[in-house]
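DM from R.C. (forwarded with permission)

"hey, sorry to bug you on a friday — could you get me a structure for this? deadline for the figure draft is monday and I only need the backbone to look sensible"
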Amino acid sequence: MDLIDSLRIWAPIIQAGAVVVAVGTVFLTYRQVKLRKEQATTQFEDELSREYRELARELPVKALLGDELSDEEFKEQFPDLYYYVDLSNEQVFLRFEERVSKETWENWQDGIESNLKRPAFRMAWSEIKDRSDTFQELRRLEQNDFQTDPAEWDQIEPE
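My reply, with the result:
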């Protein structure tokens, strides 16, 4: 067997091997990019969780436990309650933009719903809605009884 016959036999095998290596490289690259994206999402979600915990430290324990605040306590704490509503709206928006995972969103959604049912939060949210036309994302979530996934919304509907 001469060199040309050997090349005819081995060339398709080498080409097939090259294709397998190329496909494997593409798969590994895809996997690496996906893992990096998941890691970045997790870090981002962790940062927002830290932001929530820092904000929660500023809120009166009474409000977090569901006790009513006196008028004076409410006035004093209103800015922090407002910041909580703002953070909640941002969380809804981030899920709308699919920047947080479904699992994280479901945890946030439960927390937002339960906090907004507590008297101090409910009172602040009511006052904010009466005084401002902002927070469309949170308004829409509330209109849907906290049962929808913003990632499935077509767009944010203005009120």
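R.C.: lifesaver. The chain has one domain: 41-152.
me: no worries. The helical segments are 3-58, 61-65, 71-96, 102-117, 119-131, 136-143.
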